[in-house]
């Protein structure tokens, strides 16, 4: 992210804070929207949130690291969530995950060097009828076989 | 509302949406326009019809023709034939609904025949983004009745009389919970909805929120009136973007109609709702953790008492109910508590929604009266295991539950019966496993889940589940020892008795229940170093079936560690000491001459 883009986002953060600051239990909604804005929770943003909400940074860090959806590292442009929920697991979701690891040459939790993909293992995505399932950003792909993976990745080139 | 001669209902639940149902809807609209039918035929985007296995699904009323596995390019034909000429396109109908000389209506096919839809009553029937349709199907009528004709005490009595119990897992009587909160004196109280749906294999709550969000909003408002609360929160998993969006639309429409906010329906009752998102922590489904999360803290449970009904969100009296529990409320007021109590068994009234998944033909959502047997659900409604495989077990209750083997399939489903079998009702995930699933591996899978999701506050759960997982990993890797089963049993007992919250207290259940019914599989892993189902990689060996091998040599060429030897036109051999069990040879052999055992 260029410095200018980052600065602009920090300004947008002010709007988020303005909107939520008087709400009870505002921290979670603020973190959600901040993450959506930056793609992750940068330290500078956490500090600013602390200044406005008067929640200590240590506590913000504690909350941010407790929940698996919040991340302190920048993510790829596309996040690939591989469902390892029960329905998908019994239908061999592991083979889908293995294939993605091979194709992208990264481990779950990591991003590709070009900043394009982040690979994640997720819990049930709620479309078990289509098991095994993956989700790329908000698109769901179901009834997969490992051999479908290269074709799907191509769409995001 | 406008009147139309035909309604084309297109499922926009998550399942069908991912199979491109929006394109199908657009094509319908285009074709209908092309034929100048837009004043006669309307296209509606609805919630889930339940039979996700055959999506995308399109139902055309008034005939109730059930089209399954529809593709965008089929639309032209359906419009031309069905909507213009009135001829149903048989080729595209759900195969089971077509008989030689007639077409069965949806309610006659096996999948729907035994279902009774209470919580799912509007799913797939109305457009969830249009409050007028909900109102046309008796929406907000229960609220009107409650606000104008009943006192809070009468409301609570009605819920108590219906016998409704919580659908989130524990089965606590809903009316009693409301009564406790109503008796806590405080200016400020809260009504919460648990839509965190953490069980990895369950999607009932998602479907209700996506298909009928107003039914939850209306019920929460009734609950607010009953206990004296004017603010509610719906805590939804962030993994459910469609549900979140539809809830937001529904809440703003309800406000616009004066059904949320100040002076609802001209009375002096005020109530409003806000949606809060979870952030991927299973333990936040537990009530005290969920409350901590809404407050903006780490989602860690705390000991009870005090119960939330006394001291809950922001320290105020609070009730928390599951999505499906709320979805049952309005029909109870419209049809009477006696009607609700007439369904089900002695102690479990009404219906239960299950999400059928795993090795079963008709994956999807089903709602059945309590007391239906497991066999009916799995065979008659679910259509049994695919590919002629043998049923091994059904898992209910997710990581807190257990499995039901073939010998107990005739159990009548209710809270007590499932617990007696060592499983539990849970929130409604029902995953079927067949002969190819290893039960030790499944137990390992669930423990892996709990270890990952344990919040770390209490020692039995943080350390104990980790130790159990290590033992299970050892067993599945072929390093199990004779004493391992005993160790597992001791640990399980101690963790059950000493963990702080339901997560830890129930974590040993998947182990105990697989040990109870599939002890022989554990023993085979430990004593014989074999995995009977052929799942645990470390215990398998690949061998060439002599009679089938044609000596083509493909396996030897493909093997990454060159452990297969032989001459062309002779039988090849695998050196199992060098084999890394990658399975490439087996997938590449054109003659299926390699097996793993
Ligand atoms: C670890 C854990 C996870 C839970 N997850 C859920 C959940 O995802 N959804 C739910 O409704 N209840 C869940 N519960 C049960 C809730 O604590 C609570 O009992 C329930 O939401 C109450 O609503 P009900 O009475 O309508 O069932 C969970 C409990 C535990 C211990
Ligand atoms: S288990 Fe994968 S979508 Fe439910």
Quick recap:
Chain A is of the alpha+beta class and 157 residues long. In chain A, 47% of the residues lie in helices and 11% in strands.
General description of the model:
Chain A is an alpha+beta fold and 157 residues long. Chain A has two domains: 64 residues; 77 residues, 3-Layer(aba) Sandwich (Glutaredoxin), CATH 3.40.30.10. Helices cover 47% and strands 11% of the residues of chain A. Chain A has seven helices and four strands, in the order ααααβααβββα. A four-stranded mixed sheet of chain A has the order 2-1-3-4, with helices on one face. In chain A, strand 3 and strand 4 form a beta hairpin. The longest helix of chain B has 18 residues. In chain B, 38% of the residues lie in helices and 14% in strands. Chain B has five domains: 108 residues, Glutaredoxin (3-Layer(aba) Sandwich), CATH 3.40.30.10; 209 residues, Rossmann fold (3-Layer(aba) Sandwich), CATH 3.40.50.11540; 84 residues, Ubiquitin-like (UB roll); 90 residues, de novo design (two linked rop proteins), CATH 1.20.1440.230; 56 residues, Alpha-Beta Plaits (2-Layer Sandwich). The termini of chain B are far apart. The model of chain B has no long low-confidence stretch (mean pLDDT 94). Chain B is of the alpha/beta class and 597 residues long. In chain B, the strands form five sheets. A five-stranded mixed sheet of chain B has the order 10-9-13-11-12. At the A-B interface, helix 2, helix 4, helix 5 and strand 4 of A face helix 1, strand 9, strand 13 and helix 18 of B. Flavin mononucleotide (FMN) binds next to strand 8 and helix 21 of chain B.
